[in-house]
Description:
By secondary structure, this protein is an alpha/beta fold.
Amino acid sequence: MTRSAAVPVLNSVLAAPVTRTVRNIPTEVSGPGDGGLSWMEDLHLISKLPGPEICVHPGLLSIGAAGALGPPAAPLVEALTAAELHSILKVVGAKSRATSKAALAKEVLALVTDHDAVRALVGEAPPAVQEYAHRVARGSIPIQLPWGGGRSEPVGSVVSAPMWLLERGLVYKEAWVSGVMPREVGLALRGGCPFPVHSYQRPQIAVRPVTMPARFAAETGASTVVQAVERLIEAWGSKPAALLKDDGIGVREVRRLAGTIDLPERESFRLIEIAASAGLIVGDTRLRLAMPTTAGDEWLDLGAADRWWALALSWLDTPMYPSLAGAVGVREKTVPALGYPDDYESEAAGQRRSILRAVLDLPEGNGADDEALAQVVQWDAPLHWNDRPAPPSVMVGWTMAEMELLGLMVRGAPTSLASALIGGDLEAVRSLLADPAAGTWQLVLQADLTALVTGQLPSSVRAELEALADVEGAAHPIVLHEDDSFELRPYQHQAAAAFVASGSGVVVLPCGAGKTAVAMAAMASISSRTLVLVTNTVAARQWRAELLAHTSLRDEEIGEYSGERKEIRPVTIATYQIVIKKRGGLNPHMDALSAEDWGLIVYDEVHLLPAPVFRMTADIQSRRRLGLTATLVREDGKEGDVFSLIGPKRFDVPWRDIEAQGYIAPASCTEVRVTLSDQERMSYALAEAQDRYRVGATALSKLAVVQCLCASAQAAGEPTLVIGQYIDQLEVLGRRLRAPVLTGATSTAERERLFAAFRTGEIGLLVVSKVANFSIDLLEATVAIQVSGTFGSRQEEAQRLGRILRPKHDGRQAQFYSVVARDTNDQEFALRRQRFLAEQGYAYRIVDAGDVLVGDLAG
């Protein structure tokens, strides 16, 4: 029988209900000739029974796994509790009168095995969930349920899709961190065909360039892991860790260790497993303690290269899965470290080697993602992936994280250590990782009694220095990546060097001049645990993206501490608002961050610090403090408080100097004066003194001018921001201009969506409140129209101009318009607002609203 004729036979058998007997075989399959069942009977895959039935060999039913079909629904449904079964029926709208678990299970099973019902149910899902369900059914992606089992994203997002399916019985929890789709559900979404479209060619991997020097990455990673194991042995040698009642090391002990060895918690779990695989530590079930072994003591006497080699070789051959420790199991419990039985066996070593070989096949200087590599390694060695605790792409991700930890990989690209390890070339490793005692290092004692160290200190020197010196906080290696797409500008080098040489202080640079780059350079020079304080969550995520793009920091090394997340990691980005938030008279967030050993705190928009509400963040202790601002001016005259809280000004440069170098866009500033109507003048005259500014600033006479300016900008293809102070005014403008309105009430997710749409050109006009004053990166904006502000705030005026000063790819000039009401205090405050920019060399041209309305802005 030909291969092509065999496929419909197998499809017919496997598409039937999953039992030992199959009825009603189609005539085109059961008929005579090449398409008959005799071929399968000859191979003992089936046996014919009297009547229209055949008996299927149990092994044939497992063929469904080759087509990425899940297990049968029956055992998955039967494993649920009565409450879970009842919840599924309630969510899908089925009116059930069943009272016993067995009856409930029967109804749920009938639902998920009915192909038409499954397709109808998925057809009601949001588009993102539908796409996700079909991709799972095709075997394209694994199912990863949110940790803790709760929905953390809006319904309809890709993140929430597994939970949407789980709640309707279309997906079930499986071992460890994954879920599974029942075979019958997968068949329904495949149209009844068990085998997906299959290619007999090796999958192609989409690669991406990695700019970090591979040798440097190898040395940094190897040094980090070796030093971390040294600290682990030292820590548990002086105070062994307690084992859990069920054996293994729990979260509390690992969290305590993570602070000692200066690794994120998840990496610390991996490190414990790698050290155990090398025989350096052991969990003694008799003493109920985890402690170093004599082999650990002997390991400490080896050279740096040999120590790394022992770790890497043990990792390569261990049957354990180091990343399984620290993962979340089916009952939302973290899997402990050192929890494996002594006789544990698996395909882990073969899987690991196949991943390493696939990575080494990548073009030099390129990386790949987990899912693409998973497809390739399964194609290369399918038998290695039959025994696994999680979906292949998850396991590939685990292995790649372990390789990053060991210095075998950087951002998905292999280092020179990877080829040396797979080739068994210890001499190559020794040449790459020279013993620090024989390597080059330098210690410079400065006049202010701080010490700068380059290279790797020998352990004896490091121990003596740590005993005598006050180090720069807990160390954490950070490397700045400079390449063709990102390179520090001369003034950024100067600013970072001025700060690092002086200890603490403030750097003042214009909006758009790259203050974040200066901070990253300082972080790399200091290489210690760092806290970054920012104005809002959107700014925090912009910082995170910049750090991931331009430094050696990995995602798990950067924490976000905001209203939405509470992560403390070696580099933590927190919002001022969450740090100062109190609960019941206590300040838990301030206490949590103050407990860390920070080597550096970066205060973004540091001019805000003297405000009473933010001032308390200066109490967080750190060896160094770096303040960043474009506008070191305050209307309360407390600019000097910034220096007393952070340190003196270390670097400053006039805005026009940076513009002349081409690093910020040239800008034209125009004040458009609007004459109020008789009714508006009367309202202004009769208003209370404290209300007059609002009456003048929100005058409806401004609307026509703003509409005209926006129409002109949009016609020229200029991305435009309309900025104001008063929400009701902005909402009116939003309706008139048919543009989205972004205010403090806008959710973080919606803010990010709108900003992303503006950056891509999907939206060309945004109406924004003062939430856009600070730390919002909108490179594309070329026109800003200010309709109202915070009275005479010079700092706000400069910040708003700064939204459009990012350099344009075509050298276009930015246009800043301030629309003011003539002969009101709106005009008076506008003059005050312009003083800071006037000192920076910006002159305002004053025009009448009539000129705007007739389209005449020349002259």
